[in-house]
Write a structure and sequence with these properties.
By secondary structure, the chain is α+β, with helices and mostly antiparallel strands. It has one domain: Glutaredoxin (3-Layer(aba) Sandwich), CATH 3.40.30. It has helices at residues 60-74, 90-100, 115-119, 160-168; strands spanning 2-9, 12-17, 31-34, 37-40, 48-53, 80-86, 106-109, 123-125, 135-139, 145-150. 39% of the residues are buried.
Length: 171
């Protein structure tokens, strides 16, 4: 499924592969990598989850988004789980988290088969390098999406306050 002109990237309309998910829908399954270990939706279950999606951790807004959520998640302790998804290689994700002292999130790489990107409708089509669009999903302990935001301009920030309020309402 292709969603034409779904978001913009540097003001240029771009297409996304996959459905536009909405609050109230069941979170789709995926298989991504944490290092060399495969991780599925079921393996993240058990508590409320924040899925922060970024094009690449090595860019300014993605860096800031990851830091902001890491700081906010720290205050919630072990009541929630937070994951940052990108197409960065798992080794680059680990290097980033170590260098940037990201300790309250798990980075997950969708580089292998783009299953998260396709299932969550965040895989960008048409760029010279595959990327995920910026998005945020909150998923409850039962696997239901309670908040979904596809940021309309990839180079801008998500609505942190709305995402965090949705997450906090689940604890």
């Amino acid at each position: 499924m292709k969603r034409e002109n779904a978001v913009t990237f540097k003001a240029k309309p771009i297409h996304l592969i996959g459905p536009e998910l909405k609050a109230g829908e069941k979170a789709p399954d995926f298989t991504v990598l944490n290092g060399l270990d495969a991780v599925t939706l079921d393996q993240t279950a058990g508590k409320a989850r924040l899925f922060s999606v970024v094009p690449s951790l090595d860019t300014g807004v993605c860096n800031q988004q990851t830091h902001r959520f890491d700081t906010e998640i720290a205050a919630l302790g072990d009541k929630v789980a937070a994951y940052t998804f990108s197409l960065d290689l798992p080794f680059a994700q680990k290097r980033f988290c170590t260098a940037e002292a990201i300790t309250h999130q798990t980075t997950l790489s969708d580089t292998h088969n783009h299953s998260f990107g396709k299932a969550y409708g965040v895989l960008i089509e048409g760029l010279p390098l595959p990327l995920l669009t910026r998005a945020v999903f909150v998923v409850d302990a039962h696997g239901v999406i309670t908040h979904a935001e596809y940021v309309s301009e990839v180079t801008t920030h998500p609505d942190y306050d709305k995402a965090l309020a949705a997450l906090k309402s689940l604890v």
